[in-house]
Amino acid sequence: MHLHRLEKTWLKFGISMLAVFLIVLGVMAFSMGMKPPSEHHHTVDPTKVAETAPFDNPGLNQIGKNHYEAVMTAYAFGFEPAVPLEVPVGSKVDFIVTSSDVVHGFAIVGTNVNMMIVPGEVSHVTHTFDKPGEYLILCNEYCGTGHEFMAITIVVQ
Amino acid sequence: MPKPEDKKEEPALKGTFASVMLLGAFIILTWIGVFALFMARN
Amino acid sequence: MKSFDRSDSKLVLAHVLFAFAALFIGGVAGLLQSMVKSGSIELPANIGYYELLTAHGVLMALIFTTYFIVGFLYSGVSHTLGGKLLPVSRKLGWYGYALMSVGTVMGVIVILLGKASVLYTFYAPMKASPWFYIALALVVVGSWLSGFGIFYQYIRWKKGNKGKLSPLFAYMSVVTMLLWQICTIGVAIEVVVQLIPWSFGWVDTVNVVLSRTLFWYFGHPLVYFWLLPAYICWYVVIPKVIGGKIFSDSLARLSFMLFLLFSIPVGFHHQLMEPGISPFWKYLQVVLTFMVIIPSLMTAFSMFATFELYGRSKGAKGTFGWVKKLPWKDVRFFAPFMGMLIFIPAGAGGIINASNQMNAVVHNTLWVTGHFHITVATSVALTFFGILYWLIPAITGRVLTPRMNKLGMIQTIIWCVGMFFMSGAMHIVGLFGSPRRTAYNTYNDHPDAVLWMPYHVAMAIGGSILFIGVILIVYNIIGLLRAPRGETEYPIGEVSEASEKTPAFLERWGLWIGIAVALIVFAYTLPLVDMIMNNVPSPGYVTW
Question: Which of A92, B2, C238, C541 is most exposed, with minimal Cβ within 10 Å?
Answer without folding.
Answer: B2
